[in-house]
């Protein structure tokens, strides 16, 4: 493929990863982001081995591992204390784990990778329109400025994209009635955890705690707290006040107390809404859609960032291996199909069992998942699903050897550092 002139719209996770990969392959890339400065908004995220494979290819996995919190299992119980979910990553393979990350840290590392490979970043540029003439595109921003021409426009502008509707590729874009209030606090050193913990009451209430890694220049680890809410009850929750929320959370999950205590006010809790987005296809001539713009889901299976990273990798590979741009975009769509066709319906199906007004769905979930957790074969399927590795009901991709090796190397190094620290502390 000839050297392309590429505009990427949106600097979340899929955008900078794509920009870095395409710039590394020798294309001219500019990334346009509407925010005037780089701030990744949102709860902590769980990186899966799939997303880590892309970060490894970009040469940033070691830096990511240095800043993340290893998550070895997902553990969920009902309000009565009965085990509902217990999914260790070790069911996939020893040494494999997820990684809790602080979003701004992931963003900084991706943007540094972009800069290293020569992609440009322009902030404060909200793209409002795309003009196509022949095989080239121009982008018009909110101040009427035109940029272009570009051979390829990559739309990575997230779930709430204004541009999506205009392209005519949208089959579905629905807001879920339920979302979450979340807060990111300091992880209490004495309670350092490597588990994503959840407690459920029916289908209407759940609380979750995710170890969230470190800020790029910070020392202490962070912890994200999630509280499920119906979107139309958020203002009611805010009015009920912090003391009420604290009581509710701590009565369900006593170990969340140290994080809840750090919430300064109800306004410090951020409200996340989720969308379910499906496109007829991921591209049209000269334009390709990826990340949440193309396939936003509720975060029940925690795959969104990982999917956006996989998109970036698949697009770069397709462009590298194709002679013509349209062939590359079609190959990209085909490469992502199995994965999307598995995760989108499963996620849609699972969501009301965790967040809905239908309490019996929650009871059924508790019974069914508790049984599944007892059957090793099914539990492994759960682990593969959580790790983002499924490509169909009966198929999955393996964990990359190189990712597993990097995880083991990092764990050994952390262990050595810990022992060295312990020795010097006892000497002191
Ligand atoms: C509560 C919650 C928890 C989650 N937990 C996880 C998890 O554990 N693991 C996981 O993998 N995923 C998780 N997700 C999902 C994940 O956040 C998304 O899937 C992911 O951020 C999508 O990345 P993206 O790059 O496609 O879009 P985004 O991260 O949304 O980035 C889009 C960017 O585009 C910019 N933009 C928008 N419009 C324009 C425009 N017109 N012009 C220029 N720029 C524009 C925005 O400012 C933004 O920077 C979670 C989501 C929520 C809500």
Radius of gyration: 22 Å
Estimated structural class: alpha+beta
Instruction: Report the top-level CATH class of the domain at 1-43 and 103-173 and 275-355.
Output: Alpha Beta
Q: Any idea of the CATH topology of the domain at 1-43 and 103-173 and 275-355?
A: FAD/NAD(P)-binding domain
Ions, cofactors, ligands: which are bound?
flavin-adenine dinucleotide
The tally of strands reads: 23
Residue stretches low in confidence (pLDDT < 50, at least 5 long) are 423-428
Largest sheet: 7 strands, mixed
How far apart are the termini?
A: 61 Å
CATH architecture of the domain at 1-43 and 103-173 and 275-355, by name, is 3-Layer(bba) Sandwich
Strand order of the largest sheet: 6-5-15-16-17-14-18
Strand fraction: 25-35%
Q: What's the overall geometry? A: globular
